[in-house]
What we know:
about 40% helix
Amino acid sequence: MAVQDVLIGKGGVRVENLKKSFDGRVVLDGIDLQVHQGEVVAVIGPSGTGKSTLLRCIDLLELPDEGSITIGEVAVQAPGISRRQQYQLRAQTAMVFQQYSLFANKTALQNITEPLIRVKKMRKEDARQKAREVLKLVGLEDKEDAYPSHLSGGQQQRVGIGRAIATGPKLMLLDEPTSSLDPELVGGVLEVIRKLAARHMTMLLTTHEMDFARSVADRVIFLADGRIQEEGTPAEIFDHPQNPRLQSFLASHFRRELS
Ligand code: ADP
Ligand code: MG
């Protein structure tokens, strides 16, 4: 099977009026967003503003209090999302976390084949073939027998991304995918995300690195006080921010970077 067959999702994602509180404190206060198929959308915003919560709600790792989520042909409406719907929606997605969370006692190849064999019930040989295609895509075809401890952080993150795409998600959710990497390793991850986008993978990611957001995203969303305050192209958001909250967020961010 060609690598492309693994990657193409259909339909993108639509979120409407998503609300989530923790212990009576509102974190997401009615989020509406859409990511079109093949689009890369980056969510930025102050720390603790709910960026991770938004991704976790879309993946139903956290159950939203209200709102609807549609990914491809699966639609769910909170409250009252059933186990079965949870499972169906999650089968459309793959999540990549800040920490690469690979199995330490398995090789790069085995890390990718494991979920294919166990969850997707794929035959061992087919799983190995798919894992090899995916390793090639993330630029690690010569590392299939390497254990995580022998891979750099950036390489581990690329195996993690490979593991996520191998399962054939329609939407990839990446929560701070470069935050635990040394700056010189960010480029490799960026390149992989670009490659996936070129193959029409739909991606929603969070980041606190503005340079990364600018270079990876088609569209940037600024989240603050539980709501989307502004969204636009990277040029609009970073060069011509309109919302005063966004203006001061960017000013303090770049001040911090200069200091
Ligand atoms: P960000 O990713 O933007 O830094 P988070 O989504 O991690 O923000 O967190 C948003 C807010 O929700 C924070 O105040 C955090 O403490 C709170 N929060 C997140 N997850 C939980 C949880 N499972 N239980 C209680 N509070 C939570
Ligand atoms: Mg976060």
